[in-house]
Specification:
- By secondary structure, the chain is α/β, with parallel strands linked by helices.
- It contains 14 helices and nine strands.
- The strands form two sheets. It has a six-stranded parallel beta sheet with strand order 2-3-4-5-6-7. The protein has a three-stranded parallel beta sheet with strand order 8-1-9, with helices on one face.
- Helix 5 packs parallel to helix 6.
- The relative contact order is 0.17.
- The structure holds S-adenosylmethionine and FE2/S2 (inorganic) cluster.
- The site of FE2/S2 (inorganic) cluster has 7 residues, from helix 14.
């Protein structure tokens, strides 16, 4: 198995068969070997720096009904909220003073934020904090919509492809949503000039090593600037309630593989990883990740953006999260830095 990791390190690519064998054949010893290589690649390009992004979850209204997601439209137990432009700007103000130079606006697919409203918010942020990057994560939209948001000042876009395989995708989503449409969105975002992030859930229901292998091939082909992965975690009020969560062990292994496949990619150690294990984010960094995304949303709405059960940090003020993460990173010899943190994978 080590030969496959060496081959990946050298060629930055494997075949579908090799990916599958490697993922299925992983062991604690192999993982340690992988993480050592992944860390040395990460240190070569990004040193011990950890980039922070301030996450603003600005709406939990969603027209979609993804089977895994706690804010799916069929979940009538969710108390729905939308943040006003002023509330979003106030999150940015707090974030800026805490040293954030990237704001991530994330939300459900909410028709309440049409292009003109979102463009207004984006340009107001750009006017107020011109040295900051804006990342959007608001799902599937048309080419023209993505273009308008980019023209208004959005720099980056996060849209996980979730799973490349169309049949697997169909088991996780209602019939209207198609894997190919989501992938088309990613190609459009790239064409428009966004710094693009994709990704997938690890351990989603029905996922096999073969699916993960296809995810790796797709990501290699897309060659994104960022890849966000985290464990699937069930939500009690979804059809996947009671399904087992993705494991820490497999998520860390996939992070290490991603670092070797695209050495300069930005890789977050996600909140979901911190949710399934108290040291999940630290372990993610030690497996090759280099980004953390503390929450900047007002504490009054945090618990309502529950994509999965037991999400961490829902009661903490932005400053607490920021300081907590700084301490956590220092405890493993890494340092949170106050820069835009653009990807070197260009
Ligand atoms: N609406 C936007 C979109 O579709 O990209 C952004 C919000 S969406 C809730 C953000 C991500 O949350 C999804 O891409 C998905 O991978 C992740 N997610 C949703 N439900 C989850 C769950 N139960 N466990 C882990 N991650 C989940
Ligand atoms: Fe939010 Fe630790 S990161 S409290």
């Amino acid at each position: 198995m080590r030969e496959l990791i060496d081959k990946l390190q050298e060629n930055k690519a494997l075949s579908k068969y090799e990916w599958t064998v490697l993922i299925e054949g992983r062991s604690p010893e192999l993982a340690e070997y992988l993480f050592q290589q992944a860390r040395s690649v990460r240190h070569k390009y990004y040193g011990h720096d950890v980039y922070v992004r301030g996450l603003i979850e600005f709406t939990n209204y969603c027209r979609n009904d993804c089977l895994y997601c706690g804010i799916r439209k069929s979940n009538l137990k969710v108390s729905r909220y939308r943040l006003s432009k002023e509330e979003i700007l106030s999150c940015c103000e707090t974030g800026y003073s805490l040293g954030f130079r990237t704001f991530v606006l994330q939300g459900g697919e909410d028709a309440g934020y049409d292009d003109s409203r979102l463009c207004g918010i984006i340009s107001a942020i750009k006017t107020g904090w011109p040295d900051c990057a804006i990342t959007l994560s608001v799902g599937e939209r048309s080419y023209d919509s993505y273009k308008a948001l980019h023209d208004a000042g959005a720099d980056r876009y996060l849209l996980r492809h979730e799973t490349y395989d169309a049949e697997h995708y169909a088991k996780l989503h209602p019939p209207l949503l198609k894997a190919a449409d989501r992938q088309d969105c990613l190609w459009n975002l790239k064409k428009i000039g966004y710094q693009v992030g994709t990704g997938f859930m690890v351990g989603s229901p029905y996922q096999t090593a073969g699916h993960l292998a296809e995810d790796m091939l797709f990501i290699k082909d897309l060659d994104p600037q960022m890849v966000g992965i985290g464990p699937f975690i069930s939500h009690r009020d979804t059809p996947f309630a009671g399904q087992s969560s993705g494991t820490l062990e497999l998520t860390l292994f996939m992070l290490g593989l991603l670092r070797l496949m695209i050495p300069k990619v930005l890789l977050p150690a996600t909140t979901a990883l911190g949710t399934i294990h108290p040291k999940g984010r630290e372990l993610g960094i030690q497996a090759g990740a280099n980004v953390v995304m503390p929450n900047l949303s007002p504490t009054t709405v945090r618990k309502d953006y529950a994509l999965y059960d037991n999400k961490i940090c829902t009661g903490d003020e932005a400053a607490e999260c920021r300081n907590c993460l700084e301490r956590r990173m220092e405890s493993i010899g890494y340092h949170v830095v106050t820069t835009r943190g653009d990807s070197l994978n260009i």
